[in-house]
Amino acid sequence: MQNEIVLEAPLTINWAINNSCNFACRHCYSRTDTHEEIPRDVLLACLEKVAKAGVFSVNFGGGEPLLHSGLLEIARHASGLGLRVSMNSNGWLIDRETARALRDAGFTKVGISIDSHISEIHDQFRGVAGSHGRAVAALGHLAEAGITTSISTVICRINHTAIDDLVIFAREQRAGQLNFHNFKCSGLGLSHKDELDLTPGEWQEFYRRALAAKEREKGLDISLDDPIIALLGARDAGSLVKGSVCGKLSLNIKANGDMTPCGFIPIVIGNIVRDDLKQVWRDSPVLEKMRNKKATGKCSGCSKYEDCLGGCSARALALTGDLNSPDPHCWA
Question: In terms of pTM, does the model score above 0.70?
Answer without folding.
Answer: yes
